[in-house]
Amino acid sequence: MFANKNVDIEKINNDFLKVKLVNKKDFWKKNIKRKAIYSFYRFGILKKHVKRFNKYDIKEIDTSSNYFSEDRIVIYTVIFGNYDNIVEPDYVPDNCDYFIITDNNISQNSKWKKFNVELDTYSLIDKSNIEKNRYFKMKPHELFSDYKYSIYVDGNIKISTDFTEFIHNMNSYGLKLHNHYRQSCVYKEINNCIKIKKDNEANLLRHMNHLKASGMPQNYGMLEAPVIVREHNNPDCVRIMEEWWKEFSKYSKRDQISLPFILWKNKIKISEVAILGKDIYSNYAFRKVKHR
């Protein structure tokens, strides 16, 4: 697994203790004010979330069997505006390059290397920060042609272990994601987005009407996209990503609504790409931190 010793074991273990601390019921009753948040972090989910934060030992991490990949892998994130803080990874495998695409300044000591892009080259000058983010999120094939594999992570994802294992046993589409943690129907998700005002209601309804008119079935399945593993030069992957961007650009700015439609249109089952795990909260390799 090309592991190295560039891991802050003490910090990982401290994170474990902090997460474990909030497993106390009275903490949540005193500090969670909004019912929606309290429900989201119901104790079953929290226990599952904490369970994966096992205490790490350097002896376990410093074993190297070199079976994940001989290729160099790019791990990248995209942050425009002040939506997310820059989250430093705890783990940096020797065969990975960490890049960040951002309009923010980054520390000289950061493990992320700034990957400079000219927005006018991609016709993004007048686009919103969300659109800029999604463009580069969906199109690694335009950025990293010298790499065979890429792993995209949202700005609020903290990498806690060796991500290179995720490219092992890549499917024929060159695409891996997680199942959605609670939703399997894009129509229900659209209604939920309207309810909690995740996007303009008119855009969401227009998107829903488009899906219905196209024959998109209910309960086809949904994916979560804070982590995307790709063999990004794979022609099937390139086609899916290009179509995803077009759908996203034309309709609502909720990328997790657009992707299932693109897969359905290409006769790809959700189960064929949802092979990183049943949801991101049960994956030991990373955790989500709060947006800024």
Question: Gist?
Answer:
This protein has helices at residues 9-21, 25-31, 35-40, 43-51, 58-61, 129-138, 186-195, 201-214, 235-250, 255-265, 270-273; strands at 73-79, 96-102, 113-114, 149-153, 157-159, 175-179, 223-230, 286-288. By secondary structure, it is of the alpha/beta class.
Textual characterization of the structure:
By secondary structure, the chain is α/β, with parallel strands linked by helices. The protein has 2 domains: 9-59, no CATH class; 68-292, Spore Coat Polysaccharide Biosynthesis Protein SpsA, Chain A (Alpha-Beta Complex), CATH 3.90.550. The protein is built from 11 helices and 8 strands. Helix 9 (235-250) crosses helix 10. It has helices at 9-21, 25-31, 35-40, 43-51, 58-61, 129-138, 186-195, 201-214, 235-250, 255-265, 270-273, and strands at 73-79, 96-102, 113-114, 149-153, 157-159, 175-179, 223-230, 286-288. The strands form 2 sheets. The chain has a 6-stranded mixed beta sheet with strand order 3-2-1-4-7-6.
